[in-house]
Amino acid sequence: MFLDEKYLKENPEKVEEIEKSTLRMVVQAIYDYRSKAREIFEKEIDLVSDIGEDITREALDRLGMHRIDQRLFGKIDYKCACYLFHPDYAVR
Hints:
The protein is an alpha+beta fold. It has a single domain (about 5-90), classed as 3-Layer(aba) Sandwich (ECO RV Endonuclease, Chain A), CATH 3.40.600. It contains four helices and three strands, in the order H-H-H-H-E-E-E. The protein has helices at about 5-10, 10-30, 35-45, 50-65, and strands at about 65-70, 80-85, 90. A hairpin with an 8-residue loop joins strand 1 and strand 2. It is elongated and about 45 Å long. The mean pLDDT is about 80.
């Protein structure tokens, strides 16, 4: 069952649960990718923010995210939309 926008607006505690779960997933992806990330930071000469965005994308790609073919608008490091699956629901 996918949660819709209306339900999420009426249940801010669910949004917080999703945010916490998503952050845990990103942290795990970066943790698993940390050795390679260190090598990349040592060798690259790009801006740190650009390198960080690339590392985040590569780490999450290796995690095997369920992707939605849509690029999100906004100032965030990882702009690719994905599905988030929980035992009781899913979120687009």
